[in-house]
Design a protein that fits this description.
7-stranded antiparallel β-sheet, SMI1/KNR4-like, 5 helices, alpha+beta, Knr4/Smi1-like_sf, about 25% strand
Length: about 120
């Protein structure tokens, strides 16, 4: 299944999301979520599930991201045991395991959202 894009979020929902974000979003990510409120499918051999903006804060709280990997904010996963997270300070994207989640386990993927997508396409 190729990467399937969700419809764009309603403007009200987008504004609520942006008002709650108190950190650096990856360059290109806001453009993506304005056009597609999440996505799921394959980028070549990599599976990608980007969460909807309505689910982001709830899922980050549910996974206790701030406790186990402070300074990160998960935006999706590989559909398995790896999350994809934003470094709140720099906006860079990292792969972090759900089990054993910690800052020291974070693996840098890209400095921005477009580079992240390209990194997954090439994986």
């Amino acid at each position: 299944m190729p990467l399937m894009m969700n419809p764009p979020p309603l403007p009200d929902i987008m504004e609520v999301f942006l008002s709650r974000v108190a950190f650096t979003l990856p360059a290109g990510y806001e453009r993506f979520i304005r056009s597609s409120n999440g996505a799921e499918g394959f980028l070549n051999n990599s599976y990608l599930a980007l969460w909807s903006i309505e689910a982001l804060f709830t899922l980050n709280e549910g996974y206790w991201v701030e406790r186990y990997a402070p300074g990160f904010f998960i935006i999706g996963s590989d559909g398995g045991d790896t999350s994809y997270a934003v470094d709140k300070l720099t906006g860079a994207l990292y792969a972090i395991p759900f089990i054993g989640m910690s800052r020291k386990e974070a693996k840098w993927l890209a400095k921005d959202f477009d580079g992240f997508i390209e990194a997954l396409r090439g994986a």
